[in-house]
Amino acid sequence: TNIAKQAGLTHPTVYGAESNVQYLAETSSGGIALFDYDGDGWLDIFVVSGTRFADTPIEATNRLYRNNHDGTFTDVTDRAGLRRTGWGQGVAVGDYNNDGHLDLFVTYWGENALYRNNGDGTFTDVAAQAGLIPKMKPEYPYWYSGATFIDYDRDGLVDLFVATYTDYDLRRVPKPGANPNCNWKGVATPCGPRGLRPGRHFLFHNRGDGTFEDVSEKSGIAMSRSSFGFTAVAADFDDDGWQDIYLACDSTPSLFFHNNHDGTFTEEGIERGLALNQDGMEQAGMGLAVADFNGDGMIDVLKTHFADDTPALYQNLGKGQFSDVTAKAGLAVETRYVSWGAAMPDLDNDGLPDIFIVTGNVYPDTERSLPAYAYRTPALLFRNLGNGRFEQLGGEAGPALAERHSSRGLAAGDLDNDGDLDLVIWNRNEPPSVLRNDLKSAHHWLQVRLAGTRSNRAAIGATVTVQSGGRLQAQPVLSQSSFTSASDLRLHFGLGDRTSAEVTVRWPTGVREKFPVPGVDRVLRLVEGAGVRVDANPVR
Questions:
Q1: How do strand 32-35 and strand 491-496 relate by DSSP bridges?
Q2: SS3 of 100, please?
Q3: pLDDT in tens, 239-292
Q4: What is the CATH number of the domain that holds 237?
Q5: Which domain holds residue 65?
Q6: Vertex 342, ends 228 and 359: CA angle to 5°?
Q7: Which of 443, 442, 462 lies closest to 452, judged by CA?
Q8: Neighbour count for residue 475 (Cβ, 10 Å)
Q9: Is residue 334 part of a domain?
Q10: How many Cβ atoms are within 10 Å of 107's Cβ, its own excluded?
């Protein structure tokens, strides 16, 4: 059920012109973060906003909504010091200074923001003093996109990976229809991404004193092939105890940066099976979801794409090798929807991650000429059948699924602390959707909240494995996923009818620990060092 109105999320998220869109920068839009900024145990909502070229509406600002614990939220944007108008893109969540308060990194077309959480309900943008704003301005402003905190060197401090889509300047972008890169199916559209200069990507090392060092060149990140980067995910994809980076790329092969354990990365997307689809074709990569869909204890990847294409589901075969199993999983259904944010939450607590994808066309004006390609389109929900396949659900999933928006970001978390996962959706030039999960089921669940001691405090990059009744589930703690968004750092595991479980944590330091589970249907807070250390499994 979409409860956004009664929950108090009524401000439209401004992003570009509502019609007659001239520039690609107006179409991409922003992310959502679900995080507990005030440490009260309830998820709050951060919404990234854009602006307009013609005018700047008063609503054009990022927003922070504080959870009132009663199904409603209060807009505390100004009180928190988070009002900013600009072309916001994405958000990553982490605790860069290990003070126990979650910070935000927000990407922009222009200059990014690192919002330090002051612990008193306010934030301060410290990007410049942290060394995250280039001292020399680029010739053209970077269109920053995906970003993720990552402790790539296992020193207990989160570093920062930042992707760009392109460097973008209105003075050198042709008008819609000016050349073949400025039309879609014979209709004049904003130009790009083909014809634009592909982006470059950055890695910043956390020095531990509140500042970062640009190590993009010496780490090998800046050496990657040309790409239009979007969503970034950092996780230990090959189970070697070191975090890697996967970047969904638009109209170019997606990038997989393998961590070499020495401060450098090697781009191995094609070798690992994550760059192209099963036909060897590049796709318009937008969003990423990461989960263990088949219960083998290894994390798999779902990637979303443009219209007239299918999502890509990559199964982890072990040792960091992946296979495109989209068709085998029943997901190879070509749609006329443009797909963006994606998540793989267990929405019915049966112990099987489902798939939720939000959609929306980028061109508000083309449906007049191409009525089959609507601008506002519905979300897509696929239920995991437990046999490696998914089935699409429609009306039986509730009225919210029939709503049509031009959506981008998506984040999952238990907003009302009732033991099931809710969803928040970013809608272009409309208020967000808040989808409350009205699950009526006796299925059990477990939520795991990690606190690092030797690892970074928020345990970004840890992987939690839950074994229950012979079923295995693995989930990583992600700073960013979906479409440039951040879901709850608490990991949610459905257990079905099982009432006991074993939990193993692979901390970002590479150490594994087992923890006792005193009971189900509860939040477990696990502190690094308090469990029983177990020998690391050999790499699969």
A1: unpaired
A2: coil
A3: 999 999 999 999 999 999 999 999 999 999 999 999 999 999 999 999 999 999
A4: 2.130.10.10
A5: 4-534
A6: 80
A7: 462
A8: 22
A9: yes
A10: 30
